[in-house]
Each structure stands twice: as C-alpha cells, then as structure tokens.
Amino acid sequence: MTTATEPRRRRRPVLVPGYPLTDLGEPDLRSPARLYLWLAARQAPVLLAGMVLGVASMGCVALIPVATGRAIDEGLVAGDTKAFGAWVAACAVLGLVAAGSGVLRHRMSVWNRLTAGFRVQQLTIRHVTCVGDTLRRRLASGEVMALTGGDSAAIGFSFDRTARGAGALASLLVVGAIVLATSWSLGLVVLLGVPVVLLGTTLLVRPLESRQRQVRDRLGDVTSLAADTVSGLRVLKGIGGERAALERFRVASRELRAAGIRSARTQAHLDALHVLLPGLLIVLITWLGAGYAADGSITPGELVALYGYAAFLVLPLSTMAEVAGMLVRGFVAARCVHAVLAIERDLPGRPGAAMPPAGSELVDLPAGLTVTPGAHTGVVCASAADARAVVDRLGGYREADVRLGGVPLAELPLEGVRERILAVEAEPFLFSGTLHETLDPPRSSGRVSTAGALAGAAATDIVVTLPDGPDTEVTDRGRSFSGGQRQRLALARALIVDPEILLLDEPASAVDAHTEALVAEGLRDVRAGRTTVIVTTSPFILERCDRVAFVVNGSVRAEGGHADLLAAEPDYRLAVLRGAG
Asked: Is residue 519 within 8 Å of 485, Cβ to Cβ?
C-alpha cells in the first residue's frame, strides 16, 4: 500500500503481448517463394484459425439469402406463421454467427499481420548484426530502411488478407452450389462466370508485380540518396555542393514518381476490372433469374434469394481481387527480404577454438606488425587505405592471417574475439536515446567509471554544457553533436567498455590541437597497462606511445620511438607533419 508521499507508479500499457518474438527460427533461403512459405508455416495455426473463422463469417452471410427465400416461400406465400418465424430466427442466428466470427477473424488477421511484420523486422536486424560490415559493402542503407519499413508491412498485410480470401473462396463455392441446385443453368453461369472474372482480373497481376518492384527499387535509391545527403550535409555546404545534391535528389524523385504513376495506372486498370467484370456477371444472373421467375421455373422466394446472391457476389469477388493484389505485394517484398537475408559474411565460418589466455600477443602477419600486450602501440600509415586495412585485420573484420596468442582469429569464436578486441572507427556511430544510455554499454569491465572515461576522452565539458546533462536526448546518429564531440563521446564509450585490446582509428582527427593533446594524455592515463593500438598521424598521441610502427604499402617499414622515426624516416616525418595540418 502506497502512502500519500510516495509517487504513484505508472503502469506501462501492453499494446501487443508477445513481442518481440523470442523464437525466430532459421528461415528457408532457397528461394523467395520458400522464404514466404516458411514465414507462413511459422504461424500456421493462427493462419488456419483465421481462415476457418473467415469461412464461417462469409459462409453465414452467403446462407442468409437462402433463409430469406425460404421465409418468403414457406412463410409468406404458404401463410405459415411458424415457418416464417423459424426462418426469420435462422436469419438472425446466421447474422449473429457471422458478426461474432467476423470479429474473431479480424483479430486473427491483425495478429497474423503484426507477427509476420515483426518477424521479418527481427530477422533482418538479427542478420544485419551477424553480417556486420559486409552489409555496408553489399547494400545501400536505404535498402535496409525500406526493408524494415515498407517490405515487412507488405508481407504482414498479405498474411492479413488470407482469412478474408479463404472466406471469399468458400462463399463463392457455397453460392455456386446453392444456385446450381436451384437452377442448373444459373449455377453454370455462376460456376463458369466466377473463374472468368478472376482470370480477367489476374491478367494485370504480372505487370503490376513488375511495376511495383520497380517502385520498390526506386524507393530504395531515393532513401539511400536522402540518407547520404543528410549525413554529408556539412561537407556539402563546405564545398558548395548543395545544388548538385538537390538536383540528384530531384532526378531520383522524378524517376520514383514516374515509376509510381506507371504502377498506379496498372492498379487503376485492375480496380476498374474489379468493378466491371463482377457487375457484368451480376447483371447477367439477375436478368436470367427474372426470366426464370416469369415463366415459373423458380419460386418468388428463390428469385429474392437470387437477387441477394447477385448483391452478395460483389463482396467475395472484390475480396479475391484484393487478396491477389496483396499477395503480389507480399511476394515482391519477400524477394527484397530474401536478397538481404541471403547476404553472407565475407569472413568464413569460425569453428570455435579455445580462446587464448588474457595478455596474449596480437600479430598481423601480412603487415609484419606485432602488438605488445599491455603497451600503447602507435601505427602510422602512408595511406588511408593502409590505415583502414590495419584496423579491419586486427579487429577480425577482414579475412587475413592475424593471430592472437598464436591462434588465427578466423579459428576463434566471433563472440570471444568481439569481447577481447574492440575497434573504434574514425567516424563513430552514436545511437539515439539519452546520453546516459549511450555511456552505459551492456558490456564493460567495471574498471573505468563514466566520469573517468569522460575525463580520459576530454569530453567532460560536453556533458556539462548540455541542457539536461546525461539525460539529454541524442538525435539520430548523434547529429545534434559536432564531429569532434561525437568522436570524444564514442571514445569515452570505448573506454568504459575497457576491452583487453582497444583499436582506435584516428581518435582525435576532428578536434582542435588543444583538445587533441588532452585526449592523448587522457588515453595514456586511462589505458595504462592495457593493450592499445592507435592508428593515427597525431604527434601528440604518437609521442605518448611506447612504440610506433610505420606502415607503407601494407607492411611495416620501420619501428621505434616517435622521435627516433622522425629523425630516421623522411616519409614518416612527412606523414606526421601532413597529419598535423
């Protein structure tokens, strides 16, 4: 029981129970069709339940004209009050069952849509985290954004419509059987006319699929271009490239609009056929039924029931056409999902050898670079490509003969390598959320406090000047901070993690000289006794390293102290002076 002074706890509403999904399974990636069927099989019980409820709901609606006709023939025409009441009650029962099963069917449909959409999103996110840097080289960021948004929703909506589609198909069969029992000629019109209507509407399904795929491709291009423009806006302003970037975006947008118009035109023709062909069938059935009633071939009640069927047929026929369109969109989306999930990591599978003991030596055999445990090793590269390659190889992001404690990284379990070795890029990534969440990584040794890490990264002033301090919201990719601030905050995050081996790629390239000196001194203090590899050309950092290696054309040319290399290697001196501005 809470007292008057205790704050009342707010209960978080449960919007969708059971999400995120805990058991995703391994998708069947042999083809997009198999992937789509695998997704359906993962929720088969609920899909079948929705289909059964859809059949019950629309089937009851299809039987109401039968009960109405019997009420007229056996009640009104024959003057039997009890029969009339019984058939009216039957109409009421059918209506209640249709309404109840329709509500449950809608519930199952929404469950199917959300589950399929969330499953696709979670599978995509899980795969992205597994392939890591490979994805960036194989696929544009806009493709992944479109995948987790529109494509997952398209697959979900295609599953949503399965219940209604099953109900529409079952009601068409029920109506055809009843009309065939009433009049074989009218029954043949229904049984032959419905496939003709469906065939006429499906003629445009193939072109619609192709044009929707084109729209999807153009949308991915535009999204990627927008993401690149926003991320490089400061650079564009600096070089005066805003107009060129804007023109590129306009051209891509016009191509997307043209593809969208072509797709919409095909969709409009398909929608027109949805109205025209069922309307012609209904007119034919009504005209034939009126003639049969006039010559006494059918009773008045059967004529009224026939009119009811004619009006009812609009619903299942239009539903079948809608389901066909949704299935097309779902399959187009499944192709895109399959293309992403089929991407494999550039690195081969790891058999999972035992991890070497802590303090083991890290050796890059292609470059001839040996990282001394517990020391600060500076690496100066003659080119940016060499610098990136060194970080990728030592971090285990590129297939190469790099060994930890004499064991190749490729033979060690990936989780163990990531726990022991942490690589921080020159352009780090900050996730959205509060700054406190950014500086509270799930894995850390606990040796370095947040305050100590901020001081070591010369980032204490950033937090102090924020309006809400650590509770300040970090915008997407940390765009609310400058490049230097992002760099220092990411460095502080790495220092909090405190890995056994820390790889830093130009950790102070975006800050001024004074801050650069503070970062160099702070790194030396916080990482004392820990293995640290710093790929940089900063003289402030290099002069505080225990040993420096100079890499030219992918291999170590010289090693020693920073001052010794400055005196003995002209190319080293040139690289450092160039890096110092």
From this structure: no
Contact 62, 175 (CB under 8 A): yes
Residue among 216, 306, 210, 303 at smallest CA distance from 255: 216
- Number of Cβ within a 10 Å radius of residue 93: 12
Q: Any idea which fold 362-579 has?
A: Rossmann fold (3.40.50)
What mean pLDDT do residues 70-77 have? Answer: 82
Highest mean pLDDT among 18-22, 175-179, 239-243, 480-484: 480-484
CA 161 to CA 54: how far, in whole Å? 10
What is the distance of C-alpha 300 from the center of its chain? 58
The pLDDT tens digits for 20-44 are 777 788 888 888 888 988 988 888 8
On whether the pTM is more than 0.85, the answer is: no
Averaged over 341-368, what is the pLDDT?
80
pLDDT band at 455; cut points 50, 70, 90: very high
> Cα(578)–Cα(581) distance, rounded to whole angstroms?
5
DSSP state of 545: S
What is the Cα gyration radius of the chain?
34
Q: Check if CATH label 1.20.1560.10 holds for domain 35-210+276-341.
A: yes
Amino acid of residue 242: E
Domain spans, the chain? 35-210+276-341, 362-579
